[in-house]
Amino acid sequence: MTEKNTQNVEITAVEEVYAKRKKIYPRQVTGLFASLRFSGVLSLLGLYYLGPLMQWNGRQAILFDLPARKFYIFEWIFWPQDFIYLAALLIIAAIALFLVTALAGRVWCGYACPQTVWTEAFLWIERKVEGSRAKQIKLDKKGWSWGKFRIKFTKHFIWITFSLLTGFVFVGWFTPITELTARTLSFELGPWEAFWIFFYGFATYGNAGWMREQVCMYMCPYARFQSAMFDKNTLVISYDEERGEPRGPRKKGSDYQTDGKGACVDCSLCVQVCPTGIDIRDGLQYQCIGCAACVDVCNEVMDKMGYQRNLVSYTTENALHGKKESFFRPRVLIYIILLSVISVALFTSIAQRVPLGLDVIRDRSSLYRETDDGMIENVYTLKIMNMDLKPHRYSLAVGGIDGLILKKQNKGIHVDSGAVLNYPVRIQAEADKLNAASTELMFYLNAIDDDALSVAKEGRFLGPVYK
Fold first, then answer.
1. 15 domain-assigned
2. 45 and 182 part of one domain
3. Which end of the chain is more exposed for a tag (fewer CB within 10 A), N or C?
């Protein structure tokens, strides 16, 4: 090969690697799965935008108050000490995703993924402003004019406004949205609040308005490892090649089998409606998000031609080849068992959770001291956390060593809702009751007005050992 030919090959390779993105114009489709997807998108967007407006006992029902390190979910308040619950929820979400993927492929991507949900919203806006797929293609091919500028400006103005609203609501999950609204209208937003509104708005505008399928195809790791969770009984979008080939156009009502053709009329509508621009007839591809738009449009064509439906359908590899299907496979059973055990453990733990925390911190400046009357004294600071929705008064007691004397500031301990109280106490014990240099003792904290609120915490009492 000559040096000139080598250079040409290198240039061609670079052009393929860095090929410019071709815009995809998904055709609007109607049908069962389109209706399900629309319902899912509407429900999830409604939950996102209206969620911060829900009130519960005079406050925002769901609020993740990061500065105060308190997370309100209806009647519960969670603290950083409750991080284990978040970890359990993430584990449950991961296992649930694995289970759904093993059973039904990428239905999460096609119906509930935030990228899909907001892309659908942006596509709806685009269709309302620019028109159908054909009109959009025609508009983009036209040279710039006042009419084209007006249409494009309107679309992007609505996109940006919607994106900023999305960023505003996002911050509203972490800052009470009524306060956030008041500060926004009076131009008194804090720097971090303003940053996250614009950052999240920019991310929404970029991902859903411009990048779209590129996020699913190149940025999302789920598309890369999903195949590890697939098996021959996993529901996927498939084209029945045996029934559809050889494909080709024909007149309506003609006997395609007599003409030696398959059921596929090669209309390419399945490609036109695909949000990632693939041809499902080429087989299962990692770019497929399982939205079933191709199923709806193909069924529509089959109905018009008078052919049997589900040339493209949700099916399994075993079903496609006439083999027996199995729902209860080992991996599915393992996912179900793990999901059930962890979910039951989590919700049981939350149900039995006592909204009262107690930490015992010994004074480390001195191990112990001997009082004038011969008692051995240790000093502690009790960190009392009232995680309930109302204030409480508490009583404190100690045990574990005979004859312990509790020296405290006052008889009642008052802690407001969501507050933390540092409460110093002194514990005295008779020297002859100590059998070791370090002895375990217990602190008992009980709410005076609610017997269900009680907690016990161990500590160590240090003193001399007399032989």
1. no
2. yes
3. C
Q: Give mean pLDDT, residues 397-425.
A: 83
| Across 294-322, average pLDDT | 90
What integer pLDDT is reported at residue 151 of this predicted model?
Answer: 95
Does some domain include residue 405? yes
Q: What is the pLDDT of residue 19?
A: 57
CA 218 to chain centre: 20
SS3 262: coil
Q: The tokens of 435 are what?
A: 């059998």
CATH number where 428 lies: 2.60.40.10
The verdict on 223 and 362 lying in the same domain is no
- At residue 428, the 3 state secondary structure works out as strand
Q: Give 268-295 as a 3 state SS string.
A: CHHHHCCCCCCCHHHCCCCCCCCCCHHH
Domain that holds residue 122: 23-227
Q: How far is CA 51 from the centre of its chain?
A: 15
Which position has the token pair 């028109």? 131
Counted domains in the chain: 2
Specify the 3-state DSSP secondary structure of 174.
coil
The span from the CA of 243 to the CA of 309, in Å, is 11
Q: Given pLDDT bands bounded at 50, 70 and 90, which one contains residue 52?
A: very high
**Max mean pLDDT range (4-13, 409-418, 457-466):** 457-466
Burial of residue 427, with CB atoms counted within 10 A of its CB: 0-12 exposed, 13-18 middle, 19 or more buried: buried
CA atoms of 396 and 312, how far apart (whole Å)? 70
Give CA–CA dist 201/168, Å, rounded.
Answer: 8
How far is residue 371's CA from residue 428's CA, in Å, rounded to a whole number? 9
Note the pLDDT tens digit of each residue in 122-136.
Answer: 999 999 999 999 999
Domain boundary among 195, 227, 259: 227
| Residue 14 within a domain | no
CA–CA distance, 314 with 414 (Å, rounded to integer) = 61
Mean of the per-residue pLDDT values of the chain = 87
**Beta-bridge partner residues of 426:** 379, 407
Give how far the C-alpha of residue 205 lies from the chain's centroid of Cα atoms, to the nearest Å.
19
Would you tell me how many other CB atoms lie within 10 Å of the CB of residue 192?
13
CA–CA gap between residue 102 and residue 95 (Å, rounded): 10
Which pLDDT band, with edges at 50, 70 and 90, does 2 fall under? low
> Of 227, 251, 274, which closes a domain?
227
Count the Cβ atoms, other than its own, within 10 Å of residue 150.
11
Tokens (6 digits) for 81: 């000490």
Residue type, 321: H
Alpha carbon 127 to its chain centroid, in Å, reads 28
In 3D, which of 104, 84, 81, 80 has the Cα closest to residue 92?
84
Rounded distance, CA 284 to CA 268, Å?
17
Cis ω before 114 (30° cut-off from 0): no
Q: Is residue 212 part of a domain?
A: yes
